[in-house]
Amino acid sequence: MITKGFRAEPYAGAMPEPTLSPSGATGESAAAEVPQKRILVTDLPGPRSRALAARRDAAVASGVSSLMPVFAARAGGGIVVDVDGNHLIDLGSGIAVTTVGHAVPAIVAGVQQQIADFSHTCFTITPYEGYVAVCEALNRLTPGDFEKRSALFNSGAEAVENAVKIARRATGRNTVVVFDHAYHGRTNLTMAMTAKNMPYKDGFGPFAGEVFRAPMSYPLRDPLGTDGAAAAARAISDIESQVGAKRVACLVIEPIQGEGGFIEPAPGFLPALASWCAANDVVFVADEVQSGFARTGKLFASEHEGLVPDLVVTAKGIAGGLPLSAVTGRASIMDAAHAGGIGGTYTGNPVACAAALAAIATIEQDGLVAAGQKIGERLRAFLLGLQARFPQIADVRGRGAMQAVELTEPGTLTPDPGLAGRVAKYCHQHGVITLTCGTYGNVFRFLPPVTITDELLDDALAVLSEAFGSAVA
Ligand code: PLZ
C-alpha cells in the first residue's frame, strides 16, 4: 500500500491536478491505467471533494443521501479514484453492480461502439439485435431447461413490478407474498413489498394493496434456527390461513436477502416454498437483483439449493454499471401478458444491452463464477478469524463475494448498529469503501468485484481488522 495516511488536520499540500478526463477523450479503458493499490494523497474527503459537497448540498435534494463524502473521478478494476487523486478500494461495487470490475475493456468497447451506432430507437418501435441477444443469453443461463422468454427493463424495482404484473396476468389472482426483511425497491408496489420502514417507506404511503408478508427463516434470530423445513411450514401455514393459496398470484423472495441483512435462509426453506408454489399454481419468483450474475459463487444464488424458479428477476451485475434489468422465465407464464402490455420508453436500451452482452461474455470467458468462489473462501476464512477475536461478531454468513458479519452486544442478540457505523467510518477514512445493511442496521457487508486482486482484498481486510480494533476499544 502507498499511503500518506488519513490526516485529521486540514489538507495543506498543493492542490492536486484535476483528475476528470477531458471531454472527447478516446476512452481507452481506465482499468489498465488505474494502479490496483490503495493510495491516499489527501485526508478524506480531500479539498476537491469538499468543494463538490458544498455544491451538492446547494443543488441536490436532501432526500438523496450519499454514504461517503468523496466524489468519484474514474475507476478501474477494484479501485475508485476520487477527484483529489485518492485511490479507494471498492468493497461495495456500487451495491453489487460492478461485479466484473470497473472499466472492463470489453464493456467499454461494446458501449462505445453501440453509442456511436445508435443510442435509442425504442425496442417497441424499431427493435434491434442487442435486446434479442440479451434475452437469448438470459434464457440460456437462468436455471431450468424448459422453454423461456425474457423481457428487459431499466431498474431492479421496475423488473420486480413487471414480474408481479406478469404473474397476476398468468394466474388471474392478486396477492403477492413477500417476506420479513425483504427488499424489492422504492416504487409504490415495491415499497409495499419491502419490509423496512426507515428510510425506504416512512411517510411515503399509502402503499399498494394485496401484499402479504410471511415470516422469514433467519437462522441467527429464529427460534426454529436451522430447521428450514419447519420455517417453510410456518410461512405456508400463515399464507394458507390468512390469504388462501388460491388467492396467491406469486411468491417473491431473494434467495439471499440483500438490504435486509444478507440473510441466508436455513437449508430446505427455499425448496419447500418452491414445492408449495408448484403444488398450488403459485408463480415462484426469485429476486436475484443483488445475488445474481456470479455474485455468490454460482451464476445465480438459486442454484445453491437447486431451485428452479418460474421467474427470475435480474439487474445490477447484469450490465457492468449500465441501467438494465430483466424478468426471465417459463414461456407459458411470460407470454401470458397481452401484446403491448409490457414495455417502456427506455426498456432494454441498446447501450445497456451492449454492456450486458460484454459483461456476460466476460463472466463466461474469464471464469468469474469460479473467481467469486475463490474470493468467497478468502473472505470467509478472514471473517471467521475476525469473529474469533471479536465476540461482537454474532454471525458470519453469505456466499462467495456476497458475505456479511452481524454485530451484536457480546453474548446477546441485541443489535449493535453503532459499532457497524464506527467500523464503516474508519474504513471510509482509510480508503476502503464498505457498506452496511440489515433491518437493525448492524450488518457489515462485503460486495467486492469478483475480479479484485488478492493483494487488494488483503489490504482492505487488514484495514477492516484495524477498524474493529479501533471501534471496540
Ligand atoms: N431487489 C434484491 O437488492 C436494490 C438498493 C439501494 P433498483 N438494492 C439496492 C437503495 O438504497 O436504493 C434491489 C435489491 C433487490 C430489488 C432492488 C431494486 O433495484 O435497481 O435499485 O430499483
Q: What is the CATH top level name of the largest domain?
A: Alpha Beta
CATH superfamily (homologous) name of the largest domain: Type I PLP-dependent aspartate aminotransferase-like (Major domain)
Please give the order of strands in the largest beta sheet.
6-12-11-10-9-7-8
Rough shape? globular
User: Which stretches of 5+ consecutive residues score pLDDT under 50?
Assistant: 1-27
Query: From the 3D coordinates, which CATH architecture of the largest domain would you assign?
Result: 3-Layer(aba) Sandwich
Helix-strand topology string? EEHEEEHHHEHEHEHEHEEEHHHEEHEEEH
The CATH topology of the largest domain, please? Aspartate Aminotransferase, domain 2
Can you give a write-up of this model?
With 473 residues, this protein is of the alpha/beta class. The protein has two domains: 27-103 and 368-472, Aspartate Aminotransferase, domain 1 (Alpha-Beta Complex); 107-365, Type I PLP-dependent aspartate aminotransferase-like (Major domain) (Aspartate Aminotransferase, domain 2). 35% of the residues lie in helices and 16% in strands. It is built from 13 helices and 17 strands. The protein has helices at residues 47-59, 93-96, 105-117, 129-141, 156-171, 188-193, 228-242, 269-279, 331-334, 350-365, 368-389, 417-429, 454-472; strands at residues 2-3, 39-40, 72-76, 79-82, 87-90, 148-153, 175-179, 211-214, 248-253, 283-287, 311-314, 325-330, 393-399, 402-407, 432-433, 435-437, 443-446. The strands form four sheets. It has a seven-stranded mixed sheet, sandwiched between helices. A four-stranded mixed sheet has the order 3-4-5-15. β16 and β17 form a beta hairpin. α7 packs parallel to α8 (269-279). It is globular and about 60 Å long. The model is unreliable at 1-27 (pLDDT under 50). The structure holds ligand PLZ.
